[in-house]
Design goal:
Helix content of chain B: 10-25%
Order of helices and strands of chain B: EEEHEEEEEHEH
Largest sheet of chain B: 6 strands, antiparallel
Radius of gyration of chain B: 13 Å
Largest sheet of chain A: 7 strands, mixed
CATH superfamily of the largest domain in chain A: Type I PLP-dependent aspartate aminotransferase-like (Major domain)
CATH architecture of chain B: Beta Barrel
Order of helices and strands of chain A: HHEHHHEHEHEEEEHEEEEEHHEEHEEEH
Number of strands of chain A: 17
Oligomer: heterodimer
Strand content of chain B: 25-35%
CATH topology of the largest domain in chain A: Aspartate Aminotransferase, domain 2
Number of strands of chain B: 9
Radius of gyration of chain A: 26 Å
Shape of chain B: globular
Structural class of chain A: alpha/beta
Distance between the termini of chain A: 52 Å
Strand order of the largest sheet of chain A: 2-10-9-8-7-3-4
Shape of chain A: globular
Number of helices of chain A: 12
CATH superfamily of chain B: RNA polymerase II/Efflux pump adaptor protein, barrel-sandwich hybrid domain
């Protein structure tokens, strides 16, 4: 039963003021064939019945020890992060962007923007987008708009970019007359072979997407790739993992002149895995591209009395002013997620983030050592990587994954579907949340699955 | 009322046009327009070499509260855009007639006859108010 607070008298008075005979009459301009009438639903459960049903369903969840990365990473989230972010003022405030009413929120967003710009080595950050995949799509669209030297609307998209991100970009830019050209990777190294860019040299390319770290966990030759883009009149779009940036050179310092745009998913910064979301996308750029940056932008300024404060700024880019000519249809951000991320980054600071990154990487190194010691198991890509790596097994990857799941472990991400050329390969990730025992247990279990296939224990 | 030099031609859409030697036409926005827009923060200008038709939107003037399309008053080829506006977009607010936007090599200078003189433009702007 819907909760409607009006009494019969209220309703009668309102209808009388409108000159309408009934509530139904207010909808009479909708053609009869479009009215859906009663919905064919089963009878509603009572609150007690629903609670019981949900408990029963939840009881079927089997928490697995997570060794999967592939775009979402389980890092430790200090208790203070969500204790603060769960405060009503942050948690349930609805679009709190008015300067008169929401200085606290606007300040948090400003701090978030400042931190992301600093982390990526860029001049400007927006107040966030929906997730990493859509931030890449927005970066691609932005590059085409802002690159005045290019007419081709062609983007070079490496195969080492996350397969879901590539699909999302295809979906979003597909109807906007952009051309996505796939860049192959070197199967021996797991990175973009800079020589594969040669056939594109001298042609009109709007932008090159450069992932760091790439989907395989492998480090790309970002300086060479950025310099190629610059020399070829293309914009360099950096797709980055924010925790990796605590250790690696930020996109603003890539090559001779730095990348133009940096984007990615901020989930590793204090956001729980939550079955896939919500996460948030970040988008940063050089000052020259500021006017084509989509999304909300918070600025710091002074009010009429000269007191410092924060406000949304450069709103003429946005669709509530620009309408069809806006930089994007987005008119919001992931406010709650970036609040948590800002608290996380403030609590950890650069040193804390560095430690998270280092410990994650050390743990992955240890696991890879343990795995490659197993006869028949090999590391697929030899070069430098960060906190994620690919291993190949003599048994089908599916068998290893299923066997690990039976033993309480989410073994990683199977690459056989999207990268069949790699054979029976699994992408595994270890963060600082896995202990030495966890790592040894994983290696032991893989060993037993490899040496005694079909053993149900 | 805003400044309105007598020696310029005006479009209803608030551009001014000034014919120059060599068949070029210099284009900007009127003092009235900059007043209505408020503080200009950014100007998007056409590339030299681009062909435009009379009445075609080819630039954007962005203020804190609005983004306004600018229409070329004549058909032709853009020969120059005012580069100084990228560092100092506010110069449009300071002197709208000195802060020109772009210059067009006109295909047909008689198109200027379709534009308004100062009096007619003033009347048209006040009517729209």
């Amino acid at each position: 039963m819907p909760f409607i607070p009006h009494t019969e008298d209220d309703i009668r008075d309102m209808l009388a003021a409108l000159g309408a005979a009934s509530i139904e009459a207010l909808f009479d301009e909708i053609p009869a064939e479009l009215r859906c009438g009663a919905l064919d639903l089963p009878p509603a459960l009572k609150e007690m019945e629903i609670a019981r049903l949900m408990h029963a369903r939840a009881g079927r969840n089997r928490p697995l020890l997570c060794f999967a990365g592939a775009g979402a990473y389980e890092h430790h989230i200090p208790a203070a992060v969500w204790a603060v972010a769960s405060r009503g003022e942050f948690y349930s405030a609805y679009t709190p962007y008015q300067a008169e009413a929401s200085q606290g929120t606007l300040q948090v967003l400003y701090e978030y923007q400042s931190m992301m710009a600093s982390l990526t080595g860029m001049d400007v950050s927006n107040a966030s987008l929906y997730d990493g995949a859509t931030s890449l799509a927005e970066a691609v669209l932005m590059a085409v708009r802002t690159n005045r030297k290019s007419r081709s609307r062609r983007i070079l998209m490496p195969k080492t970019v996350h397969p879901y991100y590539r699909r999302v970009v295809e979906t979003i830019v597909g109807s906007q007359a952009l051309e996505l050209t796939e860049l192959p990777y070197d199967i021996d190294t797991g990175r973009i072979d800079p020589a594969s860019l040669d056939i594109h040299s001298g042609t009109d390319v709007a932008a090159l997407v450069i992932p760091q770290v790439n989907f395989f966990g492998v480090l790309e030759a970002v300086d060479e790739l950025t310099d190629w883009a610059c020399a070829n009149g293309a914009l360099a779009i950096a797709l980055v993992n924010p925790v990796a940036l605590a250790l690696l050179k930020p996109p603003g310092e890539w090559g001779k002149s730095g990348a133009d745009i940096a984007c990615g998913d901020g989930q590793p910064l204090g956001i729980p895995l939550s079955g896939g979301g919500p996460y948030f996308g970040f988008l940063c750029c050089r000052k020259a591209h500021l006017h084509q940056l989509p999304g909300r932008l918070v600025g710091r300024t002074v009010d009429a009395d000269g007191r410092p404060g924060f406000t949304l700024t450069l709103q003429a880019r946005e669709q509530h002013i620009r309408r069809g000519r806006a930089t994007s249809n987005i008119c919001t951000n992931q406010g709650l997620m970036v609040t948590a991320a800002t608290i996380y980054m403030a609590l950890l600071g650069p040193e804390g983030l560095r430690r998270v990154a280092l410990q994650s990487h050390r743990n992955t190194l240890r696991l890879m050592d343990g795995l490659t010691a197993i006869d028949g198991v090999e590391r697929v890509f030899p070069g430098p990587f960060f906190h994620e790596a690919v291993f190949r097994t003599p048994r089908p990857a599916r068998e290893i994954m299923d066997g690990l799941a039976e033993r309480g472990i989410l073994g990683g991400y199977e690459l056989t579907r999207e990268y069949p050329e790699l054979g029976e390969a699994i992408l595994v990730c270890v963060t600082e949340t896995r202990t030495q025992e966890d790592i040894e247990s994983y290696a032991r279990k893989v060993a037993s699955l490899v040496i005694h296939p079909g053993n149900g224990s | 009322m805003s400044r309105l030099p007598d020696d310029l031609k005006y479009a209803r859409s608030h551009e001014w046009a000034k014919p120059e030697e060599g068949g070029n036409v210099r284009v900007g926005i009127t003092d009235y327009a900059q007043e209505q827009l408020g503080d200009v923060v950014y100007v998007e200008l056409p590339e030299a070499g681009r062909r435009v038709k009379a009445g075609e939107a080819c630039a954007v003037v962005e203020s804190v509260k609005a983004a306004s399309d600018i229409y070329s008053p004549v058909s032709g080829e853009i020969v120059e855009a005012n580069g100084s506006l990228s560092d100092a977009p506010e110069s449009i607010n300071q002197d709208a007639y000195a802060a020109w936007l772009f210059r067009v090599k006109a295909d047909d200078l008689s198109e200027l006859n379709a534009l308004l003189d100062a009096e007619s433009y003033k009347a048209s702007a006040e009517e729209a108010d």
